[in-house]
Amino acid sequence: MHLEVPAVSLSAVLSAVDPSPTPSESGTPRVPSLQDAQESATNAAGWVEENWSTWLAIGLRVLLILVIAMVLRVVVRRAITKLVDRMSRTGQAVDGTTLGGLLVNVERRRQRSQAIGSVLRSVASFLIMGTAALMVLGTFQINLAPLLASAGVAGVAIGFGARNLVTDFLSGVFMILEDQYGVGDTIDAGVASGEVIEVGLRVTKLRGDNGEIWYVRNGEVKRIGNLSQGWATAGVDVTVRSDEDLDRVKATLSEVAEKMGKEEPWNELLWSPIEVLGLDSVLLDSMVVRLSAKTMPGKSLTVERELRWRVKRAFDARGIRIVGGATATEDVESADPTAGVAPPSVYASTISPQSVAASPLPPPTSTTK
After folding, report:
1. CA gap 284, 189 in Å, rounded
2. Using CA atoms, how far apart are residues 106 and 114, in angstroms rounded to an integer?
3. Rg for the chain, CA atoms, rounded
4. What stretches of the chain show up as alpha helix (H) in DSSP?
5. Which residues contact residue 199 at a Cβ distance below 8 angstroms, ignoring those fewer than 6 apart?
6. Distance between CA atoms of 225 and 187, rounded to whole angstroms?
7. How far apart are CA 35 and CA 45, in angstroms?
8. Reduced to 3 states, what is the DSSP secondary structure of residue 168?
9. Coil, helix or strand for 322?
10. Could you give the CA distance from residue 352 to residue 348 in angstroms, rounded to a whole number?
11. Of 165, 187, 237, 282, which one has the greatest count of Cβ atoms within 10 A?
12. Confidence at 299, pLDDT banded by 50, 70, 90
């Protein structure tokens, strides 16, 4: 038995599955119907209903992290502020002593406390807010492993490349914490010396004696000599002749020191009476008497110049002679330059009797026959 299958073209199948629009329908855009809008709204509502709890939990978690971070930041900053204020008041216990009056400087302590507090608050804020940012990213299911690995590699690279910068920064932090020097101090940093005009965590600016400005990196400073902390010492050496009356010299110096200590402005610059320490050295024709006093920081040279001026005037009035150099030289009358020349000898003349008598006898002559 033979069955015949009718031939069906491909175009007929496609037209049956998805009939092509008529020319009139293809020319105008299709307007969504009310049924399509209802289906879209139903789908959106279903998606929201399925995921609203997840998004709400994520939002509440992010909000909780930010609130805790902000509260913790405020608490830590206030604690640091109170700690710094307590540090600034620790020096008040020794205000009644002479040493406390010399070492405690309220303004200097206040500036140092503000610098320390600023550094600590900045570090605390960076740590707290950075940790909060990482926790927020983790809440959104973001993989932090590549980010932390990249940050670690970048940190190591920056650390190797900027090791001098890190050294300068850490040296500046410890310099401020230890109160090694401050603005207005005169220091000797080894590589440069002068008055401190700006203190930074990386660079310290100094103004030299001739007005130049030195930029000194904190990491390059190996030792610091602060000439402005506490007090300065003014020392004057007076060299007199060895035959001067020591009691008279001491009395004159004591009178000059007492008078200078009572006059302004030297009574404010002198923080202790000028002392006559006694003989510093005794030589064959001179002796050195030393005077010393504690002065306001940075004013020792001024006090020394004034003290030398007054000592010279007092010695001139008393007839006490100051000699210079390590030894004194005597003023003697110039002697006759020919006094040390020996008179001419009689033996210098060949015809003098003494020269003839001292001349050797001629040898005898022998005759041969």
Report:
1. 41
2. 12
3. 50
4. 10-17, 23-26, 34-88, 98-103, 106-139, 145-161, 163-178, 246-262, 266-269, 300-318, 353-358
5. 115, 172, 175, 176, 181, 182, 183, 205
6. 5
7. 15
8. helix
9. strand
10. 8
11. 187
12. confident
Helix axes 246-262, 300-318, angle to 10 degrees: 130
What average pLDDT does the chain have? 75
Torsion of CA 260, 263, 269, 270, to 10 degrees: 40
Please tell me what DSSP assigns to residue 218.
G
* Tokens describing residue 213: 């400005």
Count of CA atoms in the C-beta half-sphere (13 A) of 369: 0
Task: Return all residues near 14 (Cβ < 8 A) that are at least 6 apart.
Answer: none
- Contacting residues for 314 by C-beta, under 8 A, at least 6 apart: 252, 253, 255, 256
DSSP secondary structure letters along 223-252: --EESSSS-EEEEEEEEEETTS-HHHHHHH
Q: Other C-beta atoms within 10 Å of 337: how many?
A: 7
Is the whole model's pTM more than 0.90, yes or no?
no
Rounded CA gap, 188 and 251, in Å?
38
User: Looking at the predicted structure, is the pLDDT value of residue 283 above 60?
Assistant: yes
Alpha-carbon separation of residue 126 from 73, 81, 165, 198 (angstroms)? 9, 17, 19, 25
Contact between 236 and 308 (Cβ < 8 Å)? yes
Q: If we measure between CA atoms, which residue out of 283, 276, 304 comes closest to residue 240? A: 283
Q: Output the six-digit token pair for 327.
A: 């030894």
